[in-house]
Design brief:
heterodimer; A: 211 residues; mainly alpha; 57% helix; B: 192 residues; 8 helices
């Protein structure tokens, strides 16, 4: 949109930003020109209306005080903002420690698998531990703990309840950290159980080896 | 809220220093002090109370994130104004990308219309309707011009201050304000 000279001059005049010489000249013109007087009045009304808009009360959803804990709360209800995460670093500390524990548990599991596989590839080492019958026939009949095609899948459960602390930050991160359904492997079915004591609840990691 | 160094400079300094050192009460006080202006600007920029609240929240999260970079010798009002405008622009861009529209035309002015019953209330209603029309028209301005109108005409900041906050010259701000007002006038005439 381009401004014509009159609009621009009138707007500056109403805002009091016109130079003294131009102002005098415009005043003389306004006395003679009805149309420009109307345009000037419209601009003044618009300025007043805008000023009144600034004085208007905030609507109810915005009128309630914005407190720090409220921002955190809202943030945790699902907003994905890194700033807030940094802000809540202290709260997320325990969650990060659970993640670290799970990582260690996964590493132990992987090491376990590698060791098992290695044992199968080195009969003498296995035999020396007395875990299988001696001789190649006995070794062939031995059912391996984990075959290469078999996957090891961790199933995780938190005893003591991460969510039970009542902290929204912990609750918020529970699904991402722990996965949605840890119920399909019970403690009895688990091949390996890791119990890790942390500051807050005890984290129990169940591992089951299956096809 | 004014953007230049008015008010008690020491009070700002103390509050910001305390907030930087992790004092939540100081942080809370700063947020309480500026929230009204932040929300007003956001509301006028976005013309929707829910969006304005989202914007306000984002502004305060950024405030908390960047408070360590804040110069405690300056009134943080300028920072709040600039960030609010930027956040509103970001929200608009995001909303435009998601909806393919410039922005929702169903914005609200957030006003509750008073019930009519006597002449005074009728005047109030007329004023309220005019304000709603103005808020609707304001929303149709390009965001740069809207920011100039919101900061200069509605919030009452000086032209130089607005230029500094928006990173442009005073002449540009004057020109944008003129253009925005003429555009507003035409939009209001169309909305009649």
């Amino acid at each position: 949109m381009t401004l014509n000279g009159r609009d621009k001059e009138l707007s500056l005049y109403v805002a009091g930003e016109l130079g003294p010489k131009e102002e005098r000249r415009l005043k003389v013109h306004l006395e003679a020109c009805r149309e420009c007087r109307q345009a000037e009045q419209t601009l003044r009304n618009l300025n007043n209306a805008l000023r009144a808009l600034g004085e208007a009360e905030l609507p109810p959803p915005l009128a309630s005080p914005f407190r720090l804990n409220q921002i955190e709360g809202l943030h945790l209800e699902g907003r994905k903002d890194r700033a807030g995460r940094r802000l809540l670093g202290a709260r997320l500390g325990p969650v990060l420690s659970y993640a670290a524990i799970l990582f260690v548990a996964a590493a132990v599991g992987v090491a376990f698998v590698i060791r098992s596989t290695g044992s199968r590839q080195n009969p003498s080492a296995v035999a020396s531990r007395g875990e299988v019958a001696s001789g190649s026939q006995g070794l062939a009949e031995q059912r391996p703990l984990v075959t290469p095609r078999r996957a090891m899948q961790p199933h995780r459960e938190v005893a003591g309840g991460i969510g039970a602390t009542g902290s929204p930050s912990l609750h918020h991160n529970r699904s991402t950290l722990l996965g949605p359904s840890p119920q399909d492997v019970s403690r009895r079915q688990a091949d390996m159980v890791l119990r890790l004591q942390t500051d807050d609840p005890t984290v129990v990691v169940y591992w089951q080896f299956h096809d | 809220m004014e953007a230049s160094g008015q008010g008690d400079g020491n009070a700002w300094r103390n509050l910001i220093v305390r907030a930087k050192s992790g004092d939540r009460d100081a942080l809370d006080e700063l947020i309480l002090t500026f929230q009204n202006s932040v929300l007003k600007v956001a509301w006028r920029m976005l013309a929707n109370a829910d969006d304005a609240r989202d914007a306000g929240q984002e502004v305060f999260v950024r405030f908390i994130k960047y408070i360590h970079k804040l110069d405690e010798t300056k009134n943080p009002a300028g920072w709040f104004y600039r960030t609010t405008i930027n956040v509103c622009r970001d929200l608009e861009k995001k909303s435009r990308r998601q909806s393919g529209l410039f922005f929702s035309t169903a914005g609200d002015s957030g006003r509750t219309l008073p019930e009519t019953g006597n002449p005074g209330q009728a005047d109030q209603l007329a004023q309220s309707e005019n304000a709603e029309r103005l808020a609707r028209s304001l929303r149709q301005l390009p965001s740069r011009e809207r920011a100039v109108i919101v900061l200069r005409e509605i919030e009452g900041l000086e032209t130089g201050e607005v230029a500094r906050l928006l990173g442009s010259s005073e002449a540009t701000v004057r020109s944008q304000a003129c253009r925005a007002k003429v555009r507003l006038k035409r939009l209001l005439e169309k909305d009649l």
